[in-house]
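Example 653.
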Amino acid sequence: MITCKIYGEPVETGAVVDDLDAIAFQSVSEAEISSGDFAFSDGKTVLEFSYPLHEKDIVYGLGETMGGINKRGRSYVSYNTDDPHHRQSMLSMYGAHNFFIIDGDTSIGYFFDTPARVVFDVDTDNSKSVLVTVESKNLRLYTIVGESAYDVTRQFLNIIGPSFVPPLWAFGYGQSRWGYKTHKDIDEVVTQYKRAGIPLDYVCLDIDYMDRYIDFTIDEKRFPNLKDYVSEKKKQGIHLVPIVDAGVKVEPGNETYETGVKNGYFATNEEGGFFHAAVWPGMTHFPDFFQKEAREWFGNEYKKLTDFGFEGFWNDMNEPSIFYSEYSTKQSKLDQALDFLMPSRVEKKEGSKNNSYHDYHHFYHKVDGKKMCHHDVHNLFGAMMTRASGEGLSKLLPNRYLLFSRSSYIGAHRYGGIWTGDNHSSFEMLRQNLIHMASLNMCGFIYTGADTGGFGGNCSRELMLRWLALSDFTPLMRNHSAIATKKQECYRYKNVDDFKRVIALRYRLLPYIYSEFMKALKNKDMYMKPLGFVYPEDERARKVEDQLMVGEGIMIAPVLEAGEIHRKVYLPEKMKLVRFDGENFFEDVIPKGDALIEVPLNEVVFFIRKNHSVVVSKHLAMNTADLDLSDIFSIGYDVPYDQYVDDGISKLV
Ligand code: MIG
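Predicted structure in complex with MIG:
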């Protein structure tokens, strides 16, 4: 059962679009607000809500936030932030996913649908309550009552609509790095992977491919004859995936800039001129994605890239990230540079982020014809960029596109996936990747993944192998790293066959992974789930924070600690443990309960649930273009597997 209370005049966020008949809408009058169980004081323009928690309640959700699968015991702030120093104490990441579930004897979900800043105090200091403060008086508050956390989530996924449909090649392994400067760098990556016998489906182009970081341009010296190059790579089964940043360089002669200025498609400042903010290209204007016409225009700008043959893109810096603006000083940029070089500085102070609260109060959008301060719609900016790109790409391309964004809001999953931004090479971040997969799936983002191996810092051989073992199961499986870190392409490490074996498992499992993903998409379901969603009666399963269910039939329990070759695993029921030696699969039945499993560094083990089977490829494909989804056999229990198959590229009708 879903109800929606409407406070004030909320902005249309586009989060809830499906099955509106299933929702009981009701407007809340000002009188009710001040007399209800929530406080509303006009001076502060905040709405406050409080929900009691019982001892055994788990709080699930909140998408891309730090903390555990169970969100209890700390606070979170929805205020999209580019802060590359991911750490447990951080309150905000790149996305705003204001959906959580209190799950115990009863299961109730709440979705705070507002682009404003929202603070969630989830039992911090053992207060036995969830306190939500919305910094606005306009809000749609959805309440979903269900039989279980999973049931509540299913109802929520039903109203926010299904994910965008990625092509099959987007489920292959991708290599990326900030700093691939020329076509030769790309060729080197492709050749070395091939030489190592490791499958590869795409290589990402970071800002280095552009002419002076100007969106929709190419540095033709570094990438001559790009159209031929893109098509030559495609013939080798490799897609190239360029980045697009949110800021458009202010420069006469930059066509995107000129058209945007002429038509008033950029965000404005207090005086009504265009807002200036410095990002990678120097001074930029931000497209005003809140205007329909601006979205259509920006979406169509991707034609400048699709004309080269590109079919996949990643959208960056769309919180939006601002180095400094006409309202803040250049000092902040220097400050950030120092933070990057000396991470220890960051722990000591607040405000090390690539965005400033201050700047966000100084620029404006046209939202439904009304001038609104960026701050009040901040959390929707990246989602609106994703929407612009997704709508543009679906018109420009006859087939499916790949798109993943850094910033997001609930609902953006209908246009593209997300990646979880600038993590770093540590086991802590690997664990966070697993946690994010669970909570992002609850918020509709099923096409997602982290920078495998970590973006910042240097990735050890051990960490890369362990990380790949998790990424084997995440829809977006991309090795990405920052410029100036140690290079982390798999072929650079010792005993490259170990990497081949780990990535080979992904490709052998693709018929299952793709089928389970597409079934989740079509049924508006999750692709990865916490154990408590599948075994709600099992109190031990509900507490598991380091294992996940993948599709219907698989449970994973990756090694998340350095120096470990064993994993303590909790099995809520009897399962088959599967090992893979690079060629063949071996199975062992493990009884319900605790198990200590040996997991050598070059192995990925996983579990198949009782009475479930999994389909695997008979042969190892070097990329998805060579993969026959029907050339399969079954492993696990002797029951039929209901496989979803399509051509992997045509749009769904
Ligand atoms: O300020 O384009 O999260 O993946 O490599 C850094 C360079 C800008 C941030 C992205 C990262 C990308 C990097 N970008």
